[in-house]
Amino acid sequence: MYPAWLVPILGSGLVIAIIATFHILPSHLATGSFWFNVWLERKAYKENRPELLQFLKKYVLLILVFCFVYGSITGVWIWFSATVSSPRAISSLIHNYVWGWATEWVFFIIEIVAIYVYYYTFGKIDSHHHLRVGWIYAWGAWISMVIITGILAFMLTPGKWLETGNFFDGFFNPTYWPQLFTRTALMFSVAGIYAMIVASTLDNVDLKVEITRKASVWGIGGLIFGAIFAYWYISKLPPEAKDLVFGGQLPYLKTLLKVSIIIGVILGIYFVLFGLAIPKASNPLLGILFALVLFLGIGAGEGFREGVRRPYVINYFMYGSSQVIAKSIPAKKVKEQLSKLNKEGYLSVLYYLPERLRRVTEKNKLEVGRILVAHECAACHTLEPNGLLRPLPKLLSGMEKDEIKDLLDSLNDYPYMPPFVGTEEEKDAAALYLSTIAK
Ligand code: HEC
Predict the structure, then answer these.
(1) Which residue's CA is the closest to the ligand 1 atom numbered 28?
(2) Residue 273 burial by Cβ neighbours in a 10 Å radius (0-12, 13-18, 19+)
(3) What is the DSSP secondary structure assignment for residue 273, as one 8-state letter?
(4) Among candidates 293, 234, 231, which has minimal Cα distance to 259?
(5) pLDDT tens for each residue of 315-341
(6) How close is the Cα of 307 to the center of ligand 1, in Å?
(7) What is the pLDDT of residues 230-285, one digit of tens each?
(8) CA-to-CA distance for 399 and 166, rounded, in angstroms?
(9) Which phi and psi angles does 313 have, rounded to 5°?
(10) 3-class DSSP state for residue 76?
């Protein structure tokens, strides 16, 4: 096991969630925006309308800056934060999908080169070739989504991989297609809002109205298809996940789902009202305001997607926080670890600790208890009373050590929490530490 990452107040789970939300906006804009682009550019050439090209130049420059500075940086942040928060889970993913990521990065490079070439050759090469560079970008960016979605969906529904350990069994898993289709549809809505914001800065009113109308149609189409595919996605959730959401076991997941639906409706109203009905009234401030609403919707939607695989980080295979392997995969020569660690102790595999902390003694009990809690609870709970992520001092408030130990004994009875892993002495040490923060 690797060291645990303790984040005061926020909790590591919330850090990743915040960064991921900041990343999804530019990443889906990067994949969706160029389809609108090549469509409009083609129209510009066919109808000989250079003013459309003027719009496109503005449109692309902002994508270049926003997606390829801000989007790339937040992408690296996700890698950093996810790796320090769940190093073993990331290691498992890399062991299975290193070629998936390698392929994705090839398409990233194609995408990045293509957008620079596209922007800097505007008006400098013939239209036919310029348009072709646009198509290369659009396909390259979308294919990077085709690949990363396989790995994202794998974490919730590893499917037949659990038996076969096969790359493609895990990649083309039960929620792969619905998630890919949902993301693909919604990326057009993201592109639609963005196009409306850029169009609203145009001085030429007729052009502004024309592009705003078109962009809103893309936005509405994306929302309608996104809703249909999201429904399909939810129907494919594993039964345990459905229980968490609809069985009322984790009410906040249902709230997140409701928030994303309501935000979808609000955005639909925005597209109809300021895109189709009164496009002249569309302005940058309003657009940015609705982009913020979209941002909240993304946070809720992705929070839902991440939340439904509790108590696992890779469903059925690896528990969240403790990152203990819950299920043997003979095809991969991977062994379940629960029974071994319950006998030999969770501390026994914390190789980074000095020898004196790898076994519970009367003297180190409190210190070791804190380490165990850091590993086994802190990815989902903060340890400070004013923590934002399900603070344990509040949840355990007023409980004595023995009651807490009973709770640890039956932690797995909660459908959303992994079992406490370790020996009786370790459980006792963790309960002792928890009883001090509960006071
Ligand atoms: C994989 C994530 C995860 C891990 C790991 C985890 N919990 Fe939880 N825990 C939750 C969730 C989710 C809730 C539900 C809180 C809510 O309603 O939002 C919860 C709730 C609780 C509650 C309140 C019980 C209730 O009525 O819901 C206690 C107490 C608690 N956890 C203690 C712990 C302790 C102690 C540990 C470490 C040994 C731990 N948890 C590890 C996710 C986790």
Answers:
(1) 395
(2) middle
(3) I
(4) 293
(5) 999 999 999 999 999 999 999 999 999
(6) 13
(7) 999 999 999 999 999 999 999 999 999 999 999 999 999 999 999 999 999 999 99
(8) 46
(9) -95, -35
(10) helix
User: Is the minimum distance from the CB of 417 to ligand 1 under 6 angstroms?
Assistant: yes
Q: Does ligand 1 lie within 6 Å of residue 377's CB atom?
A: yes
Q: Is the CB of 426 under 6 A from ligand 1?
A: no
Q: How confident is the model at residue 26, as a pLDDT?
A: 92
- Determine which residue's CA is closest to atom 11 belonging to ligand 1: 416
Chain segment 198-227, per-residue pLDDT in tens: 999 999 999 999 999 999 999 999 999 999
Calculate Rg over the CA atoms of the chain: 25
DSSP string, 129-197: HHHHHHHHHHHHHHHHHHHHHHHHHHHH--TTHHHH--HHHHHS-TTHHHHHHHHHHHHHHHHHHHHHH
What tokens does 60 get?
Answer: 């692309």
Q: Is the distance from the beta carbon of residue 320 to the nearest atom of ligand 1 less than 6 Å?
A: yes
Report the candidate in 95, 7, 20, 23 with the shortest Cα–Cα distance to residue 383: 7
Per-residue tokens: 294: 């979209």
Q: Where are the domains of the chain?
A: 12-319, 337-438
Cα 387 to chain centroid distance, Å, stands at: 22
Tokens of 62: 């902002």
Three-state secondary-structure class, residue 399: coil
Q: What is the pLDDT of residues 2-14, one digit of tens each?
A: 999 999 999 998 9
Interacting residues of 374 by C-beta distance below 8 A, sequence separation 6+: 4, 6, 383
Are residues 244 and 310 in contact, defined by beta-carbon separation less than 8 angstroms? yes
Atom of ligand 1 nearest to the CA of 319: 1
**Most informative mutation of 341, 414, 426 for ligand 1 (most atoms within 8 A of CB):** 414
Ligand 1: does its nearest atom lie under 6 Å from the Cβ of 218?
Answer: no
Helix (H) and strand (E) counts for the chain?
17, 2
Q: How far apart are the first and last CA of the chain?
A: 30
**Which helix (H) or strand (E) element contains residue 404?**
helix 401-409
Q: Choose the residue to mutate in 310, 390, 436 for probing ligand 1, maximizing ligand atoms within 8 Å of C-beta.
A: 390
Superfamily of domain 337-438 in CATH is: Cytochrome c-like domain (1.10.760.10)
Side-chain half-sphere CA neighbours of 117 within 13 A: 16
Nearest CA to 408 out of 424, 394, 393 is that of 424
Q: And the tokens for 36?
A: 């609108």
Pocket of ligand 1 contains residue 264 by CB under 6 Å: no
